[in-house]
Amino acid sequence: MNQSKKLAAVKLSRVTFRATSRDIDPATVKEPAGPQTSKGISNVKLSQNDGSTKPKDVKKPGPSISLRGLLAAQRITLELKNRAALRRKSRSRTPNRKPVTIINEQVPAGSANPPQRFPYAQVKELIQEFLMTRLRNVTYNPDTSGDLTKNLCEDIKKMVRRYTPPRYKLICNMAIGSKNQEDILMASQCLWDSYSDNITSCSYENSTMFCVVTVYAVYFE
Known about the structure:
Elements: H1 2-23, H2 38-50, H3 67-93, H4 120-135, H5 145-161, E1 168-178, E2 198-205, E3 209-219
Antiparallel strand pairs: 1-3, 2-3
């Protein structure tokens, strides 16, 4: 019984398989795409050749290097190498020395050695402010410039005397002139004690005039 049932099932499966295979429409089946034929390839090549062909870019020759330029470049490189070598030698010869700090300034022999020296930096700031306040709105006049110079010198000496140590003599020199796009150079030379004596100088100018002030402080023994 069991064998007959198995044979019947096999026959039924064969029948169903054949029935399903017959129901398929052959028109709906698509053939696989095969390789292109030689005609198609030739047509593609012809279509490519029919178009306008552009000429290939021709490379232009680069600039030619002359022998003179090469020699000049070699000469420059040799000079740079020699300079670098000299710098290295000079650095290797000079040892790294520490900076020397002067604790007490030594007084030269034969100097008066005053207990308090002339404060030239502070005096310079005072004179600069004084000139700005007095000459800011002054117009140059050759007739009154002489009296103006004398008055300003006296006022400057009185002002500087307040900050000057004792036994110092003050000499004030002033020059006032018109400002007409001209250059002027002023210089002075003195024979004195470079340690105890000192000097300070400053200048001021406005739209019409210039003024140069020099104050000498000489220590009197």
